[in-house]
TrEMBL record:
Pfam families, alphabetized: FAD_binding_2
Domain FAD-dependent oxidoreductase 2 FAD-binding: 45-90
Record key words, sorted: Flavoprotein, Oxidoreductase
Signal peptide: none
InterPro entries: FAD-dep_OxRdtase_2_FAD-bd, FAD/NAD-bd_sf
Any one GO molecular-function label of the UniProt entry: oxidoreductase activity
SUPFAM superfamilies according to UniProt: FAD/NAD(P)-binding domain
Protein name per Swiss-Prot or TrEMBL: FAD-binding protein
């Protein structure tokens, strides 16, 4: 059963995107009052999550020319364990590298006006089956309205939502779970063999996900052309 849209409480003029610096709320979020009672907003890809992983995949998707909306998962992440400066965890050098890349990604997001909505939270996911595979979409109910897209990217902060979604569509944890996810248009960025993926690993995951989504779009468009021929 779909949850009724909930209006987010008033926020300060500046709203932090988790793991990044402060971004003006007026430039990244559409007000709840403006979306209530409107039809679903359509895009190509929805990114669920926040912070470094969300910024990285949003930037890669933009470079591929893929229309994307980034919303928050609404799932608070557990505080990470203290990081040792030289052994265990992430080194101070790696943290400094990630901070610099985040700064560059934030600049890229502002310059290219990426659609980041840190005050909008994803609530529920449903799959809409069209008459043809190319018409299948994901519907994401958020605190400010309904979004539809052909692909959804989850980041580490949205893992619990991803597990529930995979269970609901019959995809269980197995060696081929990633292939099953991709067949459904679902992608994961920011989680790897390590408890905390390295900066370069996350960047590579973001690039691979965007390339896979781009190929999926091309295949869908070819299918649409063949169906109308």
């Amino acid at each position: 059963m779909m949850y009724a849209p909930k209006v987010a409480p008033p926020r300060a003029d500046l709203v932090p995107l988790a793991g990044t610096s402060v971004i003006p709320a007026s430039t990244v979020a559409t007000s709840a009052s403006a979306q209530r009672g409107t039809s679903p907003e359509s895009t190509t890809t929805i990114v669920i999550g926040s912070g470094f992983s969300a910024l990285a995949v949003a930037a890669e998707l933009n470079r591929q020319g893929i229309k994307t909306i980034v919303v928050d998962s609404g799932c608070p992440m557990k505080s990470p364990a203290p990081l040792a400066p030289t052994t265990g965890g992430i080194s101070l050098t790696a943290l400094n590298e990630r901070s610099e890349i985040v700064r560059l990604l934030e600049h890229y997001a502002r310059r290219h006006e990426l659609d980041l909505r840190p005050t909008t939270q994803a609530l529920e996911f449903t799959q809409h089956h069209g008459e043809a595979p190319s018409q299948r979409q994901w519907r994401v109910q958020t605190t400010t309205g309904m979004l539809t897209a052909h692909s959804v990217v989850f980041t580490r902060s949205a893992l619990s939502q991803l597990r529930r979604l995979l269970h609901s569509v019959g995809v269980t944890t197995a060696t081929d779970v990633r292939a099953g996810m991709h067949a459904l248009g679902i992608y994961l960025v920011g989680v790897g063999d390590l408890a905390i993926p390295t900066t370069q690993e996350i960047l590579h995951q973001a690039k691979r996900a965007s390339q896979s989504i781009s190929a999926r779009i091309a295949t869908r468009e070819l299918g649409s052309v063949a169906a109308t021929a």
